[in-house]
Design a protein that fits this description.
The complex is a heterodimer. Chain A is of the alpha+beta class. Chain A has helices at residues 5-14, 34-47, 73-84, 152-161, 169-185, 215-218, 227-230, 238-244, 273-285, 302-312, 333-346, 363-377, 390-409, and strands at 22-25, 50-54, 67-70, 87-88, 91-92, 96-100, 104-115, 120-126, 140-143, 188-199, 204-206, 210-213, 254-261, 266-271, 292-297, 320-327, 354-359, 381-384. In chain A, strands 7, 8, 9, 10, 11 and 12 form a 6-stranded antiparallel β-sheet that branches. A 6-stranded mixed β-sheet of chain A has the order 13-15-14-16-17-18, with helices on both faces. In chain A, strands 1-6-2-3 form a 4-stranded antiparallel β-sheet. In chain B, the strands form 2 sheets. A 7-stranded mixed β-sheet of chain B has the order 3-4-2-1-5-6-7, sandwiched between helices. Chain B has a 7-stranded mixed β-sheet with strand order 9-8-11-10-12-13-14, sandwiched between helices. In chain B, helix 3 packs parallel to helix 4 and helix 7 packs parallel to helix 8 (268-278). Chain B starts with 10 loop residues before the first strand and ends with a helix. The chains are: A alpha+beta, B alpha/beta.
C-alpha cells in the first residue's frame, strides 16, 4: 500500500519529524468555498510563498508540472485550479497539499527499506538529495538488526560516511532515528524522505514522503484500517480497489489482492502467483491481449472467487476469458470453480468463450459440474486438466476469442 | 540421501488444530512422513489425526525429544511467535507454510535463525517433498504421486503451484525428482535458491537442477553468481516468469509479495541474462523444461 505524500507526512509527524506548515484540499470546489477560501487566504498571507503539490504517487512531479510554486495570492488560486484540471494516469487530481515554501539551505536523501540480499532493513543516506539520487553523489548505507533495532552510534557512522560534519551529527542522528521508528512502528516496506530539507536556520524537515506499507502488516495497524482514505488511488482503477477489498476480514487464501487493469479483451482469472505470471507471458506471446491481471490462491472460499469473477467480468467489450492454474496442492478445485460459476451468473452468463485449465483436489467433480452448467445454461466452456500444459491453454483461448470476434462482426 | 528429509526426520506441526494444519497432518502421515505431534496453545489434550496436541513446543519436546523439524500453519500474525518458540525449544529446521507474514516479522525470525543456526524455509513455502521418502508441508496435497515421482532432478521454485506444474511435466516425460523445494515468493525468505543449490551440489541423488524464478528481488541473480563462480557445478535449467510485468506500472506486487519490479530492478529480462551468462539453460516457455533437462543430462 503506497501512501500519498500528505499521509506519509502525518505518520512521520507522529514520530516527531517536522514538515513545512501546510493544508490539504481534498476536492475541486474546496478552494472556492468561502470558508476554506478565507482559511487559505490567511495561510497564504502568513507564509507569503507557497508550494502546491498534487497528491499522486508519481516520480519527477516537479518536472512534469504536478508541483507548482507561487508568491502571488491571485496567481496561486489560478494555479490551484489548473492543477485540479490536470490528470494523472487518466484520472483527475483530487487532492492537493499546499505548503509554506521553505528557504532551503541544503537537501539530503534518506531512504529506509529491506535489503533482500542481507534480509535486513537498510538505511541509505546522501548529502545530495533531490531527483536522480542514484546517479549523483555518494550514497552511504548501513544495515539494521531487526531484533536489536537501531543504535545512535550506527547512525552517526552512517552520517560520517555520507560526509556530514561533526557539528551536524547529533541533529541528523535524531532525525534518522525518528524516521526509522516510523518505518518500524508502522510496518513499512519503504520509507523514503527525498529531500530532507535543512533550512537557513538549520532545522530539518521532510520535504517529501514516499511511504509504502507492507500489506501483510497493515492488518495489525489500526491507523490503516480505513484504507481507501489514505491509499494512493491514482494507480488503482475502481475495479482494482473493489477487488482488493475481497480479502478484508477473511484471511484464508488470497483473491484479488493484486488486480491490474489492462487494455485487452481477454479476461484472466489465474491461480497461483507463479502460474499467473507464466500464463500472462504465454497469453501475450500467443498474440492475445489480456484485459486484466489478477490472481487467487491458497484455497480461498467460494464466495471470494465469486466476487473476483464478478468484478473481473464486469469490464465491457470482453471477447474471451481464461481461467488458469496449475495442479493445486490443496486448493479445492470444486469449491473455487463453483465460485467461478456463481460469478459467471452474476455477470449474466456472457456469450464469449471461456477456457479453463485447472487440476488438483476434486477436479473431476468440478469438471462434471461445469459440463452440466455449460449445457443447461448454454455457455461456451472448454475445460482442460493437467494433460494440457497451461501455457498451451493460453494460446487456445486466444484462438477462440479471435473466432468469437469474427463471428460477431458479421 | 535426499536433502531436508531422511529417515531421522521427526515432525512437529504448530497450528495443527486449524483447517490447513489438520489436513497437512493427514497428508504427511499418509505419505509416510514421521509426524510425531502438534502444538496449538490452549488446546492441550486433544488429538488430531491420532497425534497428541500440546500447549507449547517445550511440552512437545518432553513428549518426543527427537523432534527435529517444525512445520508452521499458524495465522500470519502469530508466525513470529511460533518460530521463536520452535527455535527456543531447540528445533533447527522450520518450514513456514503460512502466507502473508509481515516482512518485519520475517526479518526478525530470519535473524534469529541465523543466530542459532536454524534452517528456515519460507514464509509462504508450499513445503518440501522427496518423492518416495517423505514430505513436509502442503506440497503434493493428498495425491503427491500425481505430480511427483522419484528421480534425478532437483527442483527449486518460488511458486508453490509451479512446484507441482513443473514436476508434473517432468514426471510425464519420465524424469523423476530427487527433492522439490518451494522456497516461497516473499520479499524476505529463509532459504534461497543459493542455499538449496549448496545442498544439491553435495547430494548424490541429484544430477540436474531446475529453477523456477520470477520478477522481483535478487535471489535469481545470486543463483547466477553461484553458477558463474563454479560454487555450483551441476547442469541448471531455469525458467523465469513475469516478462509482461515490464510493460505495466511499476511497484505493484504480482501474485507474490516479493514479485515487484521497481525502477528497472529485478526484471525478468535481467535475471534471464544473468543466468544465461553464468551458463544456465533458460527455457523460453515453461513446457520446454523437460526437453532441456534431457539435453542437459545427455551432456553429463
Amino acid at each position: 500500500m503506497k501512501l500519498l505524500e500528505y499521509k506519509g507526512k502525518e505518520l512521520l509527524a507522529g514520530c516527531g519529524i517536522r514538515s513545512a506548515p501546510g493544508i490539504v484540499t481534498d476536492n475541486k470546489s474546496y478552494i472556492n468555498l468561502s470558508f476554506h477560501k478565507e482559511r487559505y487566504k490567511e495561510f497564504f498571507y502568513d507564509h507569503k510563498k507557497v508550494i502546491i503539490k498534487a497528491q499522486i504517487a508519481a516520480t519527477h512531479r516537479k518536472h512534469n508540472g504536478y508541483i507548482i510554486e507561487s508568491d502571488n495570492y491571485k496567481e496561486s488560486l489560478k494555479l490551484i485550479d489548473s492543477l485540479y484540471n490536470k490528470e494523472y494516469n487518466d484520472r483527475p487530481i483530487t487532492t492537493l497539499l499546499i505548503e509554506k515554501m521553505l528557504d532551503v539551505a541544503e537537501e539530503y536523501y534518506l531512504s529506509i527499506l529491506y535489503d533482500t540480499r542481507a534480509r535486513k532493513p537498510m538505511i541509505l543516506l546522501s548529502r545530495q538529495g533531490g531527483i536522480d539520487i542514484e546517479s549523483s553523489g555518494k550514497v552511504a548505507r548501513i544495515h539494521v538488526s531487526p531484533m536489536e533495532g537501531l543504535h545512535d552510534y550506527q547512525v552517526r557512522e552512517l552520517a560520517k560516511d555520507a560526509c556530514f560534519e561533526s557539528n551536524e551529527l547529533l541533529q541528523l542522528t535524531s532525525f534518522i532515528k525518528r524516521a526509522y521508528q516510523c518505518f518500524e512502528r508502522f510496518d513499512c516496506r519503504m520509507c523514503e524522505i527525498n529531500p530532507v530539507i535543512r533550512n537557513s536556520k538549520g532545522l530539518l524537515f521532510a520535504g517529501d514522503a514516499k511511504i509504502t506499507v507492507d500489506d501483510s502488516g497493515a492488518s495489525r495497524q489500526e491507523i490503516f484500517h480505513d484504507i481507501t482514505d489514505i491509499e494512493d488511488e491514482s494507480l488503482l482503477s475502481e475495479r482494482a480497489l473493489e477487488a482488493r477489498k475481497i480479502d478484508y476480514h477473511d484471511h484464508r487464501g488470497v483473491a484479488g489482492k493484486t488486480f491490474i487493469e489492462l487494455d485487452g479483451d481477454i479476461a484472466v482469472l489465474a491461480s497461483g502467483g507463479g502460474a499467473s505470471l507464466t500464463c500472462m507471458d504465454a497469453l501475450i506471446e500467443a498474440g492475445g491481449a489480456p484485459a486484466n491481471y489478477t490472481e487467487y490462491s491458497g484455497n480461498p472460499s467460494r464466495e471470494k472467487v465469486r466476487q473476483l469473477t464478478r468484478i473481473t467480468l464486469s469490464k465491457p467489450g470482453l471477447k474471451g476469458c481464461l481461467v488458469v492454474g496449475g495442479t493445486a496442492n490443496f486448493t479445492d478445485i470444486y469449491e473455487t470453480l463453483s465460485g467461478f460459476v456463481d460469478g459467471l451468473r452474476d455477470a449474466g452468463n456472457p456469450p464469449y468463450p471461456v477456457v479453463i485449465r485447472r487440476a488438483g483436489p476434486r477436479d473431476k467433480e468440478a469438471f462434471e459440474m461445469l459440463e452440466k452448467v455449460a449445457q443447461s445454461e448454454g455457455l461456451d466452456l472448454t475445460c482442460y486438466g493437467e494433460e494440457m500444459p497451461m501455457t498451451k491453454a493460453a494460446s487456445i483461448v486466444v484462438e477462440k476469442a479471435e473466432k468469437f470476434k469474427n463471428e460477431h462482426l458479421h | 540421501m535426499s536433502i531436508f528429509i531422511n529417515q531421522d526426520t521427526r515432525v512437529l506441526i504448530q497450528g495443527v488444530t486449524g483447517r490447513e494444519g489438520k489436513r497437512s497432518a493427514r497428508e504427511m502421515l499418509d505419505y509416510g512422513t514421521h509426524v510425531s505431534c502438534g502444538v496449538t496453545p490452549g488446546k492441550k489434550g486433544r488429538t488430531v489425526e491420532g497425534l497428541p496436541v500440546f500447549d507449547s513446543v517445550k511440552e512437545a519436546m518432553e513428549y518426543d525429544e527427537f523432534l527435529n523439524v517444525s512445520v508452521l500453519y499458524v495465522p500470519p500474525l502469530m508466525v513470529l511467535d511460533a518460530a521463536m518458540e520452535a527455535m527456543d525449544g531447540g528445533i533447527r529446521s522450520i518450514v513456514i507454510v503460512t502466507e502473508n507474514v509481515p516482512i518485519k516479522d520475517a526479518a526478525k525470525l530470519l535473524e534469529q535463525g541465523r543466530r542459532c543456526g536454524a534452517r528456515i524455509i519460507g514464509p509462504s513455502s508450499v513445503g518440501v517433498i522427496s518423492p518416495g521418502i517423505g514430505k513436509l508441508g502442503s506440497i503434493g496435497g493428498f495425491e503427491p504421486e500425481r505430480a511427483y515421482s522419484k528421480g534425478p532432478v532437483g527442483v527449486i521454485s518460488k511458486s508453490g503451484g509451479m512446484c507441482a506444474e513443473t514436476s508434473s511435466l517432468l514426471t510425464a516425460a519420465g524424469l523423476g525428482q530427487s527433492t522439490v523445494v518451494g522456497i516461497g515468493g516473499d520479499v524476505l525468505i529463509g532459504t534461497t535458491f543459493e542455499d538449496v543449490m549448496e545442498l544439491f551440489q553435495e547430494d548424490d541423488t541429484t544430477e540436474v537442477v531446475v529453477i523456477f524464478g520470477e520478477v522481483g528481488g535478487v535471489y535469481e541473480e545470486i543463483a547466477a553468481e553461484m553458477i558463474r563462480e563454479k560454487r555450483f557445478t551441476k547442469p541448471t535449467v531455469a525458467f523465469i516468469s513475469g516478462k509482461f510485468a515490464e510493460s505495466i506500472s511499476l511497484g505493484l506486487a504480482l501474485g507474490h509479495a516479493g514479485a515487484v519490479v521497481e525502477e528497472g530492478f529485478g526484471t525478468a529480462e535481467e535475471k534471464i541474462r544473468a543466468l544465461r551468462q553464468a551458463g544456465a539453460i533458460v527455457a523460453d516457455y515453461h513446457h520446454q523444461i523437460p526437453e532441456l533437462v534431457k539435453q542437459a543430462r545427455s551432456s553429463l
